[in-house]
Amino acid sequence: MSEDNLPSERAHDAHHGAVAVAGDAFADPGLPAHLPRRQDLDEQAAKHSERVVAGLFVLSMLATIGFIASYVTLKPGKIVYIFPVGHVSALNFALGLTLGLALFCIGAGAVHWARTLMSDVETPAERHPIEASPEVRAQVIADFKQGAAESQFGRRKLIRNTMFGAMAMVPLSGLVLLRDLGPLPGKSLRTTAWRKGMTLINPNTNLPLRPEDITTGSLTFAQPPGLSEDDDDFQDVIAKAALMIVRIEPDEIKDKRELDWGHQGIVAFSKICTHVGCPISLYEQQTHHVLCPCHQSTFDLADGGRVIFGPAGHALPQLRISVNGSGYLEALGDFAEPVGPSFWERG
């Protein structure tokens, strides 16, 4: 500290103990001198900044159009390789990239507009009570009008029009997403891919199952023919059509309909838990119980797939099966009731 700012006298007040200090040790340094920008002095530079801002707004509009085009044209199941991300969903990548670019360009355009064309003069203001006085309110309105004038919003028509266009088009991205609210599901929640005469396919070998492939005490899985994991709708189809097959001694089956809908003790039930739709895969050989690993709902496959424990609300649907002329297990139709968790349309 300079000696000029040091106390020149230390006189202790008898009553308050104050120390007298000569001069102001913490003088207000004030604001630095305002330096004009190139755009303030050169109209060509200002025009260039205007074109940059407008270009960003136009790029935002093009990105919004790209978002809508991606949503309409790209299939949800299409997987592409993007370096260095790896294999990703083409639809998700395109939607995220285009929407992010649209929003970024609006923000970048606004920032560049403010830094190069709007007024950058710093104006200090004294602190004031929270409640504004009439004079302050009048000053705010005046400052707003002055700011609107200094922003050159009315003068820079190219910026104004492209900004309106970009901001008007960005909400279209959300409107397009409303497309997924329809059409109504109709009977799609009540039916699966199983039809009469379809053979039961082992998903591991992709070959039809014979009765001798199902051994007593084992748990085998099956799916409809013609499915491939590369299909766009594979997950939608298998989420309802997945089967689990067990062979139980006929005299151990307690439910008559279950016995009639099977073949020599071979019975097929939906693999989808009736609680929240998790795949069931845990089988107790001695009790013929299957356990859902998600919330421990337990079903008795020897008694019509009824619930014996857990939060599931109803029994596992059974698929009626038989053996065709070639000796393969086949379905005799679709499930008699909807598979998976309950839904509001279930009657």
Automatic annotation (TrEMBL):
Membrane topology per record: Multi-pass membrane protein
Parts of the chain that traverse the membrane: 52-73, 93-114, 158-178
Cofactors: [2Fe-2S] cluster
UniProt KW keywords: 2Fe-2S, Cell membrane, Disulfide bond, Electron transport, Iron, Iron-sulfur, Membrane, Metal-binding, Oxidoreductase, Respiratory chain, Transmembrane, Transmembrane helix, Transport
One Gene Ontology cellular component: plasma membrane
Coiled-coil boundaries: none
Protein's cellular compartments: Cell membrane
Domain spans labelled Rieske: 259-330
Main location: membrane
Single GO molecular function: oxidoreductase activity, acting on paired donors, with incorporation or reduction of molecular oxygen
A Pfam family recorded for this sequence: QcrA_N
SUPFAM superfamilies: ISP domain
InterPro entries the record matches: QcrA_N (IPR045603), Rieske_2Fe-2S (IPR017941), Rieske_2Fe-2S_sf (IPR036922), Rieske_Fe-S_prot (IPR014349), Rieske_Fe-S_prot_C (IPR005805)
Subunit annotation: The cytochrome bc1 complex is composed of a cytochrome b (QcrB), the Rieske iron-sulfur protein (QcrA) and a diheme cytochrome c (QcrC) subunit.
Function: Iron-sulfur subunit of the cytochrome bc1 complex, an essential component of the respiratory electron transport chain required for ATP synthesis. The bc1 complex catalyzes the oxidation of menaquinol and the reduction of cytochrome c in the respiratory chain. The bc1 complex operates through a Q-cycle mechanism that couples electron transfer to generation of the proton gradient that drives ATP synthesis.
Family statement: Belongs to the Rieske iron-sulfur protein family.
Name listed for the protein in its UniProt record: Cytochrome bc1 complex Rieske iron-sulfur subunit
Source taxonomy: Bacteria, Bacillati, Actinomycetota, Actinomycetes, Kitasatosporales
